[in-house]
Amino acid sequence: MRLRPTLAHWFETYIPRNETVHALKALASTGVVQLELDPKLTDPLNLEPVLHFIERFQLVRNKYRNLLPAPGIPHNGQAEAPERTARKALDCLETWSAPLDALLDRQAQIETEQKNLVLLSECLAAMKEVWGDVAHLSQKSHFLYKGVFACPRTQHLAADICATIDEIIPGQKHNFFIVADEPGCRDIIERAYRCKTCLKLQVPEWLSSVPDEYKHQIETRTAELEVQANETLQALDEKRKDPVVSIALADIDLLAWYLKHSIDLASVRKLCHVTGWTTAENVGLLQQAFYNDGIHGVIRFTAPPESSKTPVNMRQPWWAKPFLFILELLGTPDSTEIDSSKLLPIIVPLLFGYMFPDVGHGLMLVLLSAALYQRWPTGRILIPCGLSAMLFGLVFGEVFGLEGVLAPLWLHPLEHPLEVLLAPLVLGAALILLGLVFNGAQALWRGAAREWLLSDAAVLVLYIAILTGLFVPQSLWVAVVALFWFLLGQLLIASSERMAHLGRGLGSLLQNVFELALNTLSFLRVGAFALAHAALSTAILRMTDGVSNEVLHMLLLVLGHIFIVTLEGLVAFVQTTRLVLFEFFIHFMRAEGRMFRTMTKPPHGPDTGKW
């Protein structure tokens, strides 16, 4: 039995206006929907922000298309409004792409240097012993422009380029041209060679002029570049596998599809925006209702409006629903409170039956409720209460106040008044203890377990110790321990002014102990009303015994029992409600929630099943 309410989900859907009525009928037929107007519906549907974010997203997407992971599965379940989804997807993609430019630049630099080293090795192999004469090309000069260009051997150079060449060194795949000229000719020369698909050879300053040394240097540098290239490639591969970006891509694709198919309808306001709450765990149930009725709309869970309080689903079984109004007299629990509505079908009949113990009177209540079952739904609570009264009537041997008709299973109230008074105290103490335990469970749900352990838990132990101390005096030492526990807890809870906080804590403890004592003694009224019921039933019999006329005797007897059932039944129910609300609920219930109420299901015709 689940004792914690669950929060409902906010849903929304856009449907064609001509299908709105049938869509609401389909939603109502599920029995898990509560419609509520979204405050944003007062504004016209504005898709411009969504379009803006999608366009920016696609620009970034196109730039890094070859590096993006494959689109995954869009968010299914709790999501935001379309513009928030698009904004989050854009932020995700921009965060993902931020380090990419540096990685790509680094990859290009490595590839350029690797290619240069390959050309350099080919050039050095072609130059052989003359390399030392041109090693000075790596040295910068303000008086002379120096350069080495590598051109494919199949490349025919123009006359203007040939005029700048000082020396040609044929290589295995390239011709290497050594150029020297005035510094002002640098741009002209390099532009001319680029036009002929030639590459300028970069001679690193670290390169030695000794053949054995420069070969080793090039091999070492080539190995270093290979390691760096693999690291860069691995980093890019990891970016391609990012699952968050994959979901962002899927979300944008879904939004783009939605806009493609709905923007024309939205522009002429042919769509109706339906919003509300549902207790369905996923959109499948609601979506299936649309499919069954041929409704063209997609339902999804979204973030609820900030100004709206999420209702809670009490999940009441049929046997608990008649007692729900008692809980609503105090309020509705929220998602961090105990849903005690499932306990009321046990507690209420138990208290009522003890205060109204009579087989005959209980049977009258059951028959009355059964006769008005359809017309008086709230009155169905009298059936379990009447059955409980009949059960306690057997326990006390009461049948319309007649003596000797039934032997009591336990005792007769008027013969053993003390036992009848004390028995409800045990039940009352158990209910109060249950309420204090519920308070601890709620503190755990709220994330306030530490405060409860340092304060209210000590009160719970103190209450148990005092109760058991009435029978086992040694347990009063536990009460002393609980008192010190409480005082220490007050000092630990206080962050400043601890003595003042301790004083307030002592005052609160005295109030709690006094209230717990009064709450416990309040259950004496349960036994008192049981005695009063027995006494009143006996009094009615004694009053009618003196009437000699049989018809008048029976009439007075019937009227007397109707009076007892009406008056005592009402009083017993009022007292039961009071005990539940102010002696049980008060120890744990804050009633800060809002009840989920389903739409009324649409009426159906007898044959067609339609409105």
Radius of gyration: 44 Å
Helix segment tally: 21
Strand content: 5-15%
Shape: elongated
**Which spans have pLDDT < 50 for at least 5 consecutive residues?**
605-611
Give me the secondary-structure category.
alpha+beta
Largest sheet: 4 strands, antiparallel
Distance between the termini: 38 Å
Mean pLDDT: 83
List the helices and strands and how they pair.
Layout: E1 6-7, E2 9-16, H1 20-30, E3 33-35, H2 48-63, H3 82-97, H4 100-127, H5 131-134, E4 145-152, H6 159-162, E5 165-170, E6 174-181, H7 186-195, E7 199-201, H8 211-240, H9 243-267, E8 271-278, H10 284-293, E9 299-301, E10 312-313, H11 324-330, H12 344-355, H13 359-371, H14 382-396, H15 417-446, H16 449-454, H17 456-469, H18 476-493, H19 498-522, H20 524-545, H21 550-584
Antiparallel strand pairs: 1-10, 2-8, 2-9, 3-8, 4-6, 4-7, 5-6
Protein described:
This protein is an alpha+beta fold. Helix content is 57%, strand content 8%. The chain is built from 21 helices and 10 strands. The strands form 3 sheets. It has a 4-stranded antiparallel β-sheet. Helix 4 (100-127) packs antiparallel against helix 8 (211-240) and helix 15 packs antiparallel against helix 19. It is elongated and about 150 Å long.
Keywords:
611 residues, alpha+beta, 57% helix, elongated, disordered C terminus
How would you briefly describe this protein structure?
57% of the residues lie in helices and 8% in strands. Helix 12 (344-355) packs across helix 20 (524-545) and helix 12 (344-355) packs across helix 21. With 611 residues, it is an alpha+beta fold.
